[in-house]
């Protein structure tokens, strides 16, 4: 069975979701790619930021 | 040159909901029906990829609605269309979530369903001419 790390799971989730968001939420291919990348960075960035916040709160 | 009125007339003919229903049943099929092969392939790969990753992580396919969370999760699972039916028939997925990755897998499957609904609605919007 597939047992990814938490970060690998976040990256996979962000990748799949960003592709769908990019294609469905924008009209032209160039805008789709840009919006998909934007979503991917936000997904992964937010996960890293929240992880650090929780780490610091838990200390 | 096609005018806006022509496009509206073209979009209005035939069964308008076919891409929506096909897209819900089979990920990407709505876009394939409309000749959007590239978009359909990418959507299909992403949704199937997320669903398969969820199953590989031993995610749960929700089969009953015991409480509100189960009900919402099952609604999400149903979004995968024929994949949900296949999972039920073939007995895919775990029945009891015991470790963390199995819980993540369950979320992957639910979100795959929700993404498929977004994709099917996008196919519908393309069909009606609301989106280019």
Condensed summary:
Chain A has 59 residues and is an all-alpha fold. Chain A has helices at 6-25, 29-58.
Describe it for me?
- The complex is a heterodimer of chains A (59) and B (132).
- In chain A, α1 (6-25) packs antiparallel against α2.
- Chain A is an all-alpha fold and 59 residues long.
- The mean pLDDT of chain A is 97.
- Chain A starts with 5 loop residues before the first helix and ends with a helix.
- The longest helix of chain A has 30 residues, at 29-58.
- Chain A is 85% helix and 0% strand.
- Chain A has one domain (8-58).
- Chain A has 2 helices and no strands.
- In chain B, 42% of the residues are buried.
- Chain B has 7 helices and no strands.
- Chain B is mainly α and 132 residues long.
- Helices cover 69% and strands 0% of the residues of chain B.
- Chain B has one domain (15-128).
- Chain B has helices at 4-12, 18-25, 29-33, 37-56, 68-78, 82-90, 100-128.
- Chain B is elongated.
- The model of chain B has no long low-confidence stretch (mean pLDDT 91).
- At the A-B interface, α1 of A face α4 and α7 of B.
Task: Give keywords.
heterodimer, A: 59 residues, mainly alpha, B: 132 residues, elongated
Total domain modules of chain B:
1
One letter per element, helices H and strands E, the order of chain B comes to: HHHHHHH
Structural class of chain B: mainly alpha
Strand percent estimate of chain A: under 5%
Give the CA-CA distance, first to last residue of chain B: 16 Å
Mind summarizing the main beta sheet of chain A?
none
Task: Report strand % of chain B.
Answer: under 5%
Domains of chain A (count): 1
Computed Rg of chain A: 14 Å
Q: How much helical structure, as a percent, in the residues of chain B?
A: 55-70%
**Main beta sheet of chain B, described?**
none
